[in-house]
Amino acid sequence: MPLLDNPVVSDVSPSELLNNSFEELSQYVDELREQFESWQPLSSRILYVLRIESLASKMRESSLEVFQLLKHLPADLVSPSEDCIELVKLVGREEVSYTIDLALIDQRKGVELTPEVLVKIAESVGLRSNQDILIEGVVLTNLKEDANLVKDNTRAGFIKGLIYLTKQMHDYLAKIEQSQSPSDFFCPLSLQLMTDPVTVTSGQTYERAFIEKWFDMGLMVCPKTRHALSQTTLTPNFTVKAFIANWCESNNVNPPDPLELIHSNQPFPLLVGSCSADDSRDSLPLPVMDDTLKCNHIESVDASKCEELHQVLTRSASAPGIVSKVVSKANTSISQAPGETVPQPWIIPATMKETGSSSNMEAEETGGSSSMEVEVKKLIQDLKSSSLDAQREATAQLRLLTKDIPDDRTVIARCGAIAALVNKLYSMDKMIQAEAVTCLLNLSLDDSNKTVIAYSGVFKPLVHVLKTGNMEAKENSTRALVSLSKAEENRTKMLQAGAIEPLVRLMGNGSPRGKKDAATALTNLATRNREKEMVIRGGGVRYLIQMMNPAAGTVERAVVVLANLANVPEAKIAIRDGGGIPLLVDVVELGSPRGQENAAAALCVLCMDSSRFCNIVIREGAIPPLVALTRSGTTRAKEKAKSLLKYFEALKQENQRRN
Asked: Taking burial as the number of CB atoms within 10 A of a residue's CB, which of 285, 429, 506, 603 is the most buried?
């Protein structure tokens, strides 16, 4: 308006159009200022930056319109420089939106995002540490749940894609940080070796200083599972602490100081720009975008992606960009209005309205689940295609659709996908086979689908995958068996299909997670001596003793299975000859409450009516930890410890009588 005062005084009346343009520009500037002022530490950074970017883009267009109108005024009154105009053209180029659009397209295709793309997005929205990424995931998860409650499929689908982006960022960081030592020894928050591990009520273990800071921020959810926590009780995990200490000593590793880590809040690896190690959600008032957002188009963009994106954009003449189109619908502030309270500390106020995604534009137009059904039925037809490429694409798409949203799993099962996927378990193409078994695993997580899957004849095909698939397929087949093994009828069918032998092999050569799942499946299946003997003959006891290496992170699961097998004579001999007894004594002394309980139970079975085993256990120094267990263990652990001590006392008295 000061700029307009001079023309008015000089009897040069500005046009109504110019007045309107200045008013529009002023409105956008005010909106931007309000957005910056409304920033809250527990807002979604991604949605916040997209909103800011959308407003900045509007401000740019409005500014350029004003400049064009000012050119018609006399040059001696006002003359915007070309440098100024060029600078304004660079403001709000929607580069973050464009990058996220391309990432969501790749995500929908099942294409793995490169570290460069993940770093670019993380940097652009101010996700500077693993803690920032986990907080973003929690915030987005709750926003997605809000969208599901009001059946806003477009918004839920878009946020689902963003959640998966944060998961990929976290996995990328974890892969870098945990490459040199067992992953179970790392805190999921700090991604560093734990020195004071504590367990929360969800059963997950964290570094004490980091989980306490998490709770101090008002986040009453488990960072890893994202499940709500009823209380903030922290239970010291002495088992993990002892294993970490032993591993560090054996490998000459000095664990980091958690207090130093928590103050440094290490930045995202490969992060370019000017962020410092001190930047965090507490100290940074809002995401800072560096100069890379002000210039240049995205480099080396695949031409086919650009063409696909162009086709999506041109579906509506008014759509300047997928994300910006959806975000522009949001006319309310991201944060709560003055005086408004947030009912739960981790949930962002419902005034945030950013919705939509490239993968859900059709749903917006045709109506939610009906659009999903059309898509799923098309994918089922592709599964029956003679083209392996079409089958690979279809299984990859179904895997993405079954990943997160329970309602989607119900729709997919209702469309008849289960039978088609079971058929693909016999595919000679390892990629198709692996994707199909992962889809069935995801679908089995919904209780309403379990019966349909069980009656589809799935168990022989799952065992076939256990025998012939790649490692990912074998491990996901095992998880599917675990998911379906709650029903006794299903367990019988698994045994008839011959599941025990390949499960034992997986327990010997799988990844730590695969070994754990195989052990769990065998615990569920080997309930009678006949099945237990099959496990033992297959080398199961030897594999379980190997799993009791503290560095493997599989000790507790191995002890459960050993306790289950210990009543079989062949298992007793295998445990003794394989060096399992001293390891069981170590768990009694240093293990978790559940581990101590099962280790004591296994020793109790071994020593029952056997003076030879009693003597071996006594020589391994079991008496002091057993005495301690009678005072501080679980009810069952106390009972087993007292029984063992009675056996030892009876043996002592028998030896005295003989002497």
From this structure: 603
CATH number of the domain residue 249 falls in = 3.30.40.10
CA–CA distance, 507 with 389 (Å, rounded to integer): 33
The number of CA neighbours under 13 Å toward the Cβ of 195 is: 11
Condensed to tens digits (0 to 9), the pLDDT of residues 437-471 reads 999 998 988 877 888 899 899 999 999 999 999 99
Rounded Cα distance between 26 and 234, Å, is 52
380 with 420: CB under 8 angstroms?
yes
Amino acid 427: pLDDT: 94
Q: What's the rounded Cα separation, in Å, for the pair 84 and 336?
A: 36
Model confidence pLDDT, tens digit, residues 77-135: 555 555 555 555 555 455 778 888 888 888 777 777 888 888 888 888 888 888 888 88
CA 57 to chain centre: 33
Q: Which residue, of 217, 239, 260, is where some domain finishes?
A: 260
Which residues partner with 228 through β-bridges? 221
Token reading at 96: 């973050």
Assess contact for 293 and 96: CB atoms under 8 A.
Answer: yes
SS (H, E, C) 518-541: HHHHHHHHCCCHHHHHHHHHCCHH
In angstroms, rounded to a whole number, what is the distance separating the alpha carbons of residues 469 and 31? 56
Residue 265: what pLDDT? 52
DSSP code of residue 75: T
Q: Which domain holds residue 39?
A: 14-93
Q: Which residues contact 264 (CB under 8 A, 6 or more apart)?
A: 277, 278
Of 60, 93, 126, which closes a domain?
Answer: 93
Segments of the chain with pLDDT less than 50: 1-12, 92, 268, 270-369
**What's the CA gap between 212 and 207, in Å, rounded?**
9
Write the DSSP symbol of residue 228: B
